[in-house]
């Protein structure tokens, strides 16, 4: 018997400008805040694609003064946040413009909040409070994955302490989502990004609340969209409609909307996945896609009362039919595993060169905020270690 719908609040103040050519509105948006812009970007993909020239041209011809914070790494580091915040303070920055994927956006959010924080900014990450003072953040999205363009979170890594935490910063004021900017995303990153979108939908869907029909229906649509459109873009990277659907799926899946009315399920795979990224710097979507089918098999065996929810997943997402709910549940996990095995990313830890050495520590850290022990199917430390062994 599932729980009743939970109370929820809807609040997402980010304006999304979606579609081809929306970038032309960038000067108008930035003019709301001032002329001093921190341009934040990653390792150079935007220079290769021509987007850098397009943006700097647009800004220069509209009299903006650009300060650059480049080289934001995937799994962005606290040192980069410190560097960006110092640039904002020194240059009297009015707004932070993030051009990139989740790493650049997360880093830009942390910079925008960090500008007003004193001392060690790692404490700001750990503090994770909403409503903190922040410079305005404007986003130009280049990779469909995390949903950072439509939420207030940022995930920052501290390599020296092997920690990676999600913190609450501010919502982007405006996010420009032009699917053509994702045409240049390599197959590997496209697949990892889609695995992340899928995971966001699944981590909301597998909750003890069965009656939040709108949230579940949206999650199912997003999952079916990824399953349909990811192979289409892997086949043809310039497929506009498929790229566009993945982009909107990215924004919705991690916006919190899929959680509305649902009992918080712990989002266990994300909790464990962040630990792997902190220790091994692995790609977020890839580790999620290794963990998720193993987690599913484990919880189904441990607590067969979840079988009806998996049977719904089987019917509505994988188009399976049958009366035996446990069997359907198992088949749905096989389908997911087959799909994730077909998109060109790692399917186990061994192929990433990861062994069991750190499993004990990873299991401990992953549960520091109770996201394993107080989750959809509560997991003990030994359970988590077992799931990790199943991932080898
Ligand atoms: O750095 P550049 O040169 O730009 O290259 C990037 C990077 O190497 C490349 N890329 C991005 N757009 C491209 C492109 N290459 C060619 N053409 C383009 N148009 O892709 C690589 C990966 O980029 P990254 O930003 O790291 O990927 P993603 O968007 O998956 O972000 C991952 C980070 O976001 C966090 C993850 O933990 C991870 O640190 N997350 C953030 C969330 C949030 N804010 O709500 C939630 C998520 O669950 C996630 O935890
Ligand atoms: Zn994610």
Number of helices: 15
- In helices, the fraction of residues equals 40-55%
Under the CATH scheme, the architecture of the largest domain is Up-down Bundle
The computed structural class is alpha/beta
Give the neighbour order of strands across the main sheet. Answer: 1-8-5-4-2-3
Oligomer: single chain
Largest sheet: 6 strands, parallel
Question: Beta-strand level of the residues, as a percent range?
Answer: 5-15%
Mean pLDDT: 97
- How many domain units? 2
Structure described in brief:
This protein has 392 residues and is of the alpha/beta class. Helix content is 48%, strand content 11%.
Structural notes for this entry:
- The structure is a single chain.
- This protein has 392 residues and is an alpha/beta fold.
- The chain folds into two domains: 21-177, 3-Layer(aba) Sandwich (Rossmann fold); 187-390, Dehydroquinate synthase-like, alpha domain (Up-down Bundle).
- It has 15 helices and eight strands.
- The protein has helices at residues 26-31, 45-49, 51-60, 78-91, 102-114, 121-127, 187-205, 213-235, 240-253, 268-280, 284-302, 307-316, 325-341, 359-366, 381-390, and strands at 15-18, 36-41, 65-69, 95-100, 137-141, 153-158, 163-168, 174-177.
- The strands form two sheets. It has a six-stranded parallel beta sheet, with helices on both faces. A two-stranded antiparallel sheet has the order 6-7.
- Strand 6 and strand 7 (163-168) form a beta hairpin.
- Helix 12 crosses helix 13.
- The longest helix has 23 residues, at 213-235.
- It starts with 14 loop residues before the first strand and ends with a helix.
- It binds 5,6-dihydroxy-NADP and zinc ion.
- 5,6-dihydroxy-NADP (NZQ) is lined by residues 42-46, 49, 74-75, 100-104, 106, 142-143, 145-148, 151, 153-155, 181-182, 184-185, 189, 193, 196, 254, 270, 284-285.
- 5,6-dihydroxy-NADP binds at residues 42-46, 49, 74-75, 100-104, 106, 142-143, 145-148, 151, 153-155, 181-182, 184-185, 189, 193, 196, 254, 270, 284-285.
